[in-house]
TrEMBL record:
<dbReference type="InterPro" id="IPR004733">
    <property type="entry name" value="PurM_cligase"/>
</dbReference>
<dbReference type="InterPro" id="IPR036921">
    <property type="entry name" value="PurM-like_N_sf"/>
</dbReference>
<dbReference type="GO" id="GO:0006189">
    <property type="term" value="P:'de novo' IMP biosynthetic process"/>
</dbReference>
<keyword id="KW-0547">Nucleotide-binding</keyword>
<comment type="pathway">
    <text>Purine metabolism; IMP biosynthesis via de novo pathway; 5-amino-1-(5-phospho-D-ribosyl)imidazole from N(2)-formyl-N(1)-(5-phospho-D-ribosyl)glycinamide: step 2/2.</text>
</comment>
<feature type="domain" description="PurM-like C-terminal">
    <location>
        <begin position="110"/>
        <end position="168"/>
    </location>
</feature>
<protein>
    <recommendedName>
        <fullName>phosphoribosylformylglycinamidine cyclo-ligase</fullName>
        <ecNumber>6.3.3.1</ecNumber>
    </recommendedName>
</protein>
<dbReference type="GO" id="GO:0046084">
    <property type="term" value="P:adenine biosynthetic process"/>
</dbReference>
<dbReference type="InterPro" id="IPR016188">
    <property type="entry name" value="PurM-like_N"/>
</dbReference>
<dbReference type="GO" id="GO:0004641">
    <property type="term" value="F:phosphoribosylformylglycinamidine cyclo-ligase activity"/>
</dbReference>
<feature type="domain" description="PurM-like N-terminal">
    <location>
        <begin position="56"/>
        <end position="104"/>
    </location>
</feature>
<dbReference type="InterPro" id="IPR010918">
    <property type="entry name" value="PurM-like_C_dom"/>
</dbReference>
<dbReference type="GO" id="GO:0004637">
    <property type="term" value="F:phosphoribosylamine-glycine ligase activity"/>
</dbReference>
<dbReference type="Pfam" id="PF00586">
    <property type="entry name" value="AIRS"/>
</dbReference>
<keyword id="KW-0067">ATP-binding</keyword>
<keyword id="KW-0436">Ligase</keyword>
<dbReference type="Pfam" id="PF02769">
    <property type="entry name" value="AIRS_C"/>
</dbReference>
Amino acid sequence: MASASGRQARGCRAPVACSATSGGRYIFEDGDCMVASSDGVGTKLKLAFETGIHDTIGIDLVIKGIEDGCQQSDCTLKRGETAEIPGFYAEGEYDLSGFAIGVVKKDKVEGDILIGLPSSGFHSNGFSLARRVLEKSGLSLSDQLPRNDGITSTIGEVLMAPTAIYVK
């Protein structure tokens, strides 16, 4: 198996489970590490079906996209197959998942600084709890919310806002 840089992963140690992430990693003999992770957008899909807002959900895959998300983060969209699995999803439903792979240079890790940034929203986590709170509150996805910029949006629109891509 070759990494994105063309180096062979053969001869490196066996895959090591990353305790801090849900990714898997392969450590090269020089100490650099190839990390791979795959994820979906979780129960935010349920909100996409309930609100009918489907044009932003793919951007969340870049974080946890589709073409817009890749363009925002200067990534190439690697195309693959579309699996046909009749009867698995209800009529009109779909699933989304993404895969990321990269190389972490050993000399770039030691001494790195962690920077905290304000969140742009829920991202791809917490939607099961948000839906439960919404249900218990008696509010609906179509109820209006005032925003800081003076514009009014529905609860559904706010929840379906795409995850910010912080790379730029």
